[in-house]
Amino acid sequence: MALDVGVIGSQIVAQAAQVAGDGWKAMATAATVELRGLAQRIVLIVEAYADGELSQARAKQHLRTARFHVIATIAMMTVMTDAVIEKIVNGALAIVKDSVNKAAGFALLI
User: Fold this and answer.
1) pLDDT band with cut points at 50, 70 and 90 for residue 22
2) pTM of whole model > 0.90?
3) Which listed residue, of 4, 64, 83, 84, carries a Cα 20 to 30 Å from 57's Cα?
């Protein structure tokens, strides 16, 4: 049974986009690369099993490891995105800090 990396990759990416919603756009390029890589690894695992190079147990173990890697990588990207967004917001607040604090009559923005 031959697997099509393109079809599997497209299905994985489409599902990820649906689950992630609007947040997907911020991570789409990097996440797409990782998810397509997962699709390639799945195909290689199935082929290795079919060729007798992997047992079912080892194939499942490889899949768990590959899945964990993608989850960890995408989680890392969300942390990086949060850090960038925090810098953007802090920078925007710094620009209006003096005028906001003056209008408020106290140090609302620190």
Assistant:
1) low
2) no
3) 4
